[in-house]
Amino acid sequence: MASTSDIRKGLCIKYNHDIYKIVEFLHVKPGKGPAFVRTKLKSVTTGKVIDNTFSAGHKIEDVRVETRSYQFLYSEGETYHFMNTDDYTQIALQRDALDAYDLLKESEVVTIIFNAEDNMPLSVEMPASVVLEVTHTEPGVKGNTATNATKPATVETGASINVPLFINEGDKIKIDTEKGAYLERAKE
User: Fold this and answer.
1) Per-residue pLDDT tens for 5-53?
2) DSSP per residue over 130-156, as a string?
3) What is the CATH code for 129-185?
4) How much is the pTM?
5) Which of 8, 31, 37, 50 is a Cys-bridge partner for 4, taking CB atoms 3.0 to 4.6 Å apart?
């Protein structure tokens, strides 16, 4: 058993007869009244995201998990195939288990979280950022900007990202996988 002081991003807990992963949390200490923790929980079975508030000191049941590195091989419709980088065994996961599936390109190495009790895959953790090539974007017109003007660009995985006007087709860009946002032009 853990308490609210152990809450951190990525922690898997049992709540309402399901397993949830903590996506966001905020410890709040109001001027009047007891402290509490506001959380955003994502179900690892259904993918549904809920908001929940735990009072300070509330006991939560954490799930013991193991993480393993897997390489993304290919996708077939809603099914994504991965290979363990240690023993080369393969597993197939549904699209719901992935947070940013549209930024996943072949041969990308991800971390898969497994329930230690029954060895079931719970979720897929993307790397903090990925480098992808821009396959289509309109040319930026110089002079029609105010500040921080952006334009839509399609990357090699098919995802659409807003990028600055100086990015052209063929450029490689670094993308934050958590927000799905442009970070910088990749250094080659």
Assistant:
1) 788 887 888 888 888 888 888 988 888 888 888 989 888 777 788 898 8
2) EEEEEEEEPPPPTT--SSS-EEEEEET
3) 2.40.50.140
4) 0.72
5) 37
